[in-house]
Task: structure prediction
Amino acid sequence: LPVEASLELSMQAQTSPEPVLFVHLSLVDINTTGGPFKLSHQFLQPYFPRGGLGYVKIEFNIAMPQKASKYRCEVEKVVRELFKERCWSRLVMAITNHTDNDCGDPFTGYFDDQYVAAEIFQQFLDVLLAPWTTMIQCAKESYIWCFSCGALVNNVVSFTTLQKSVLKSVSPSSNIAFTTVQFQPNFTVHLILAFTEQVLIENYHIAHAFPHMLSQSNKLGRHTDVILMMTDALAGNLSATRYFQTHIDYRPWAYHMPIQYPDCGIVDAWRATTKHRVYSFECKNQCCRKLLTFEQLAGSQLLMPGKTGSSSWMAILCTSES
Result:
């Protein structure tokens, strides 16, 4: 049988038939209207005309024991109903939350009419995800998108605790987190739609797809770095890779260029040169002439997907836990 058609959109001549369940866990009273997670579910709907695609959103307020117990009972009921419907092979979860900018701890809900934070392990992830453990373990693939401010991963203690708790408690296939302090989830729309297309539809492994996903999200790199945590349940370890964008004028080798030189205060201050992959910037002020130089971070690599003449995504392995 001769094949005369061409592959118009993808080099992957298959689509995944596996059922997909989206679970959105949102801190109480956070406005998620128009968010990218719901959009990704809607993007998938035409691919499942006979069912096999689900979406659940649950607000959580687990700041007090009785509220945590109420949340657990609610989730257990939802999980029972979902299992009655079918076995969900692929589970995509999102946690939309705020974090304490000082210690990186996520918020759990209200106490005395104020948001309160709690330690990641036992007081947060263990309570929030424990009712979903069976569903995560039964899924062939599971992904957790952490739509929260960057203090969660920028603080060394909270980031280390996050990795250990993910590995020891629920062990999803992958976790995605973001580093900017004032994180805006809507800026991730191109990234999560690329994930939906390349991972959920075309069935690429997320580690292979991630550089290509980022290539469709160049503006996201101006807002935040992205961290991909991958778990290997059989080996019992977790690796975390940080992806960041470099630009020859504004973010050489991922270092942020100041808008003005702090000593002389001149704006639009820089005159740039490049030699042997080292970027040098000299202040234009005749009375200043200070020089800044930037070299590529040791162990980092440029990613070819999405590379332009002036910018590129880069990757560096930041941690490995076991």
